[in-house]
Amino acid sequence: MEKGGIREIIDFLSRPIFASTTKVGILLALVGAKEASFSELQDVLGVSKSTLSLTLDSLEEEGLIKSFTIFEGRPKKRIRITEEGANLIMTYLEYLERYREFLKEKS
After folding, report:
1. Residue 3 pLDDT class (50, 70, 90 cuts)
2. What GO MF annotations does this protein's record show (predicted)?
3. Residue 79: is it exposed, middle or buried by C-beta count within 10 angstroms (0-12/13-18/19+)?
């Protein structure tokens, strides 16, 4: 690994957003599905409604997701990952892979 490479990896992976497993889980779920309902995310993540709601609000304020309501019978909240959110989580996965390779080189 090039000089400074591990420092770059550690700096990126140490960003506060990645300390929240719920935030990372939401972004990972959405990058594959592109869109999900509130209840689908709750089922996948196994978190309370209040935790999910607060986390979604935070991610939306950060511009990483967009939520909207569909009115078919009962209103249903849908969540979609933004381009910024998809880029962030894909970069996160790339840095994890780089770190895995770094560890592999060390063993």
Report:
1. very low
2. DNA-binding transcription factor activity
3. buried
Q: Which residues contact 77 (CB under 8 A, 6 or more apart)?
A: 37, 38, 67, 68, 69
Among 102, 87, 93, 20, residue whose Cα is nearest residue 57:
20
Q: 5-106 maps to which CATH number?
A: 1.10.10.10
pLDDT surpasses 60 at 102: yes
Quick check: 52 and 41 in contact, CB under 8 A? yes
Q: Where are the domains of the chain?
A: 5-106
Q: What is the DSSP letter of 48?
A: -
Tokens linked to 16: 């506060």
Once rounded to an integer, what is the mean pLDDT over residues 10-23? 94
